[in-house]
Automatic annotation (TrEMBL):
Domain Baseplate hub protein gp44/GpP-like C-terminal positions: 256-340
Signal peptide: none
Matching InterPro entries: Baseplate-like_2-layer_sand, Baseplate_GpP, Gp44/GpP-like_2nd, Gp44/GpP-like_C, GpP-like_N
Protein species of origin: Acinetobacter bereziniae
Short name of one Pfam family: GpP_4th
Domain Baseplate hub protein gp44/GpP-like second, chain residue ranges per copy: 95-177
Record's protein name: Phage tail protein
């Protein structure tokens, strides 16, 4: 399989390709924007001898024939040592502008728009296309605070809409929930898994998820204060009192939206409390398809008591270094990115559920 890493730089008048990278780190994920890369070589290859790498130039990173990052060069570092000359290029996807720059929109307020329309408005000036794989409700009001980034606004909007936002390989923004297309490959202990580390946590879990709804119409069970309404989701598996108050990102949210928001918070925190870090020996599955975020893989690690379970890839890092070629994956339980009440997670082994939910220690 062709895993040769190639950087194509577009100066606006010319395009040229650079290959021969000896150290590679390319990271993509569903809970981060933008995608990023760091490429390094220890001596000047012929192609690089005739070109100048200028930060700010457009670029595309390929693995074989597959595009993985489309964006801009951030930095070019040229290092000289006694017996070595090192060249390093780092860059990020087009969505880097959403993280770096300040958000601008007429009136600094969005009214009666869904998440897709708001995202398109924020991305338009940066030449970033937006697509949504799910239909979301209209958000009544969303303000932009002067100086905050488009990514900060998107984060609030997507929490209200209960969707993920992330960058695709072409540098465009995707609004999605977790995909349920079945596993794209199998990762097996003793076969293609080099290392596996399973972290179970409870420090980010709470007994009560309380969404505050200002000026809501209350019924008798919801009255705690005459001026403020609450929607509460309780986690019966957290056996000590640990409340978390959540201020809704949509100030006009009703109880239906508040319920989804509370469940979304609870589910995502459970997903992050059962995180599996894997290093596998190839960037591709047996069919030659790159491992990518928001796809499922079947996990079989008997030593960790995870047997033939489908989990979701949250982040991928393709690496080449002195240890060879490998792929670092962060995978989490399926169901951690949906607003429905899905706890306990389907697919988690029983002892993992018990340990996570406080039944056993």
């Amino acid at each position: 399989m062709n895993n040769k890493v190639k950087l194509i730089i577009d100066t606006g008048t010319n395009q040229f390709a650079i290959e021969g990278w000896t150290q590679v780190s390319i990271t993509c994920g569903i809970e981060r924007i933008p995608n990023s890369f760091s490429l390094q070589m220890s001596e000047k290859v012929p192609d690089l001898a005739y070109v100048e790498v200028i930060p700010g130039d457009k670029c595309t990173v390929y693995i074989g024939e597959d595009v993985v990052v489309t964006g801009y060069i951030d930095r070019f570092t040229n290092t000289v040592r006694a017996n070595q000359h090192i060249y390093q290029v780092t860059g990020r996807g087009k969505c880097s502008d959403l993280v770096d720059c300040s958000a601008v929109w007429k009136g600094m307020q969005f009214q009666n728009m869904d998440a897709l329309k708001i995202a398109e408005s924020l991305c338009e000036d940066y030449g970033i296309k937006v697509s949504s794989e799910v239909k979301t409700d209209v958000i009544s009001v969303q303000n932009i605070n002067i100086g905050e980034t488009p990514a900060a606004v998107l984060d609030r909007v997507c929490r209200v809409a209960q969707v993920l936002y992330y960058e695709d390989e072409n540098g465009n923004l995707i609004l999605s929930r977790e995909r349920n297309d079945g596993p794209v490959g199998s990762l097996v202990q003793g076969k293609n898994i080099e290392t596996a580390s399973f972290t179970k946590g409870r420090d980010q879990l709470y007994s009560d998820y309380i969404v505050v709804i200002p000026s809501a119409a209350l019924n008798a069970d919801q009255i705690e204060d005459q001026n403020i309404g609450y929607y509460i989701v309780k986690d019966k598996f957290i056996n000590r009192y640990r409340p978390l108050y959540i201020i809704p990102e949509d100030g006009d949210a009703g109880f239906k939206v508040a319920e989804k928001r509370a469940m979304w918070e609870q589910n995502r925190r459970y997903a992050r409390s059962n995180v599996l870090n894997l290093t596998v020996s190839n960037w591709r599955n047996v069919e030659g398809i790159l491992y990518k975020p928001n796809t499922q893989v079947q996990i079989n690690i008997p030593s960790l008591k995870i047997v033939m379970q489908n989990w979701l890839i949250g982040e991928v890092t393709y690496r080449i270094d002195e240890m060879g070629t490998r792929c670092d994956l962060i995978v989490m339980p399926i169901g951690g990115f949906t607003p429905e009440p899905i706890i306990p997670f389907k697919g988690l082994p029983t002892d993992v559920l018990e340990a996570n939910q406080g039944v056993t220690q």
